[in-house]
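The instructor's notes for this session suggest beginning with a concrete chain rather than abstract definitions. Hand out the sequence below and ask the class to guess, before any prediction is shown, which regions might be ordered.
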Amino acid sequence: MNYLKDNTKQKILDFFKVIDKYYVLIILFLLFAVMFIIFHGNFYGLMLGLVFVLMVVEDVIKGVLTGGIKSELKELVVGLLVAVSIWYGISFLLNTSTPISAVVSCSMLPNLERGDMVLVRGDEFNTYGTLYLDDVSDIGPEAVVTIGNVSKVVNGSIDSFCMLNRDDPFCALYVTNPDKFVERHGQLEFHYGKCERRNIKDGDMFYVPCVVSVKKVDTAQEIKLYPHSDDGSIVVYQPNKGDLFSYVGDIVHRAVVKIKTKKGIYYLTKGDNNQITDLQVYYPGYGGNHLIPEDNIKGRIIFRIPIIGYVKLFLSAQLDMPEQCDYVFNE
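After discussion, reveal the predicted structure:
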C-alpha cells in the first residue's frame, strides 16, 4: 500500500517537473494575458484565470507532497503575515488605509487606463474650485430639471433619465440642445453643453451632451468642469454606504469641486471620460450617489503601473470590456 502511495506521489511530482521544465504554465499565463489585453475577449480572460488557478494548485500540491501539510500550512501563514506586514508598512509610509488600488473601468481615460495599478498617498489634493454652501442634506439623487418655464423631477440627472427614457420629449431636446437645460440638486446647479468625443478605433468625431459647469444657486460663481483640467487631483474614495457606487468598491475619480459647509467638507467627483459627475449617476433598483465626505477620501494618486491592475479584474470576474473604453473626450 505504501509503495502504491509513494508511486502515485512520484508520478505527480514527475508531472509537475515536466511542466516546470518547459515553463508551460508561465508561457500560457503570459500568452493569455497578452491576448486578453489586446483583444479583450472573455475567453482569454477565463483561460488566464484557469491557468492562474492551476499555478496556485500546482504550488500547493508540490509543497504538500514534498514537505507535508504542516509545512505547507506554515509557509502559507508566514506568507500571509509578510504580505499583511508589507501592506500596513506601506499604509503607514503613505498615510492612507488604501495605499494601492486598481482602475477597473475606462472612466478616467486618457489619464488612467483600465487595468492600471495606482499608488495612493494620503495628503492634500487640489480641485477646480471651492463652493460655500449652507447645507448638503438636500443634495442627493433627486434632481429638478428645468428648460424654459417647464420643470421635471428626475432621479440622478437628465442624462441618467434619458439613458432609460430615450423616447421622452425632454430627451429628444436634451440631445439636440443640452445647453438649454438647468439641473438642480439642492443648492447645486448644473449646466449642460455639447462636448466633442472621439472614437479611439477609427478617429471619428461626434458631439454628446455633458455637464460643463456647476455653481451655487442664485450666485455668480461658476466652476467649469469641461474641458477637463489637471488642476484637480485624481483621488481614491470610498462611496457612501447604500449609494450606487458602493456596490462597486473604492472609486478612482477626479476631485473637481470642494464644498465647504458649517458641518464639514464634501467633494464633488467625476470621471474624466464620463459625461456627468458621480452625484448625477443613477440606476433603477440600485439608486444614486451623494457628495463624498472628506473622511471618505483615501488619498490622491501619485503613481501608476499599467496592466498589473488586471489581477483585480480577474479576481472580481470583471472581464467584459465596457463600451465606454472605445471613446474619449477630444479636448
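Then share the key points. The first strand starts at residue 100 and ends at 102. The two ends are 74 Å apart (CA to CA).
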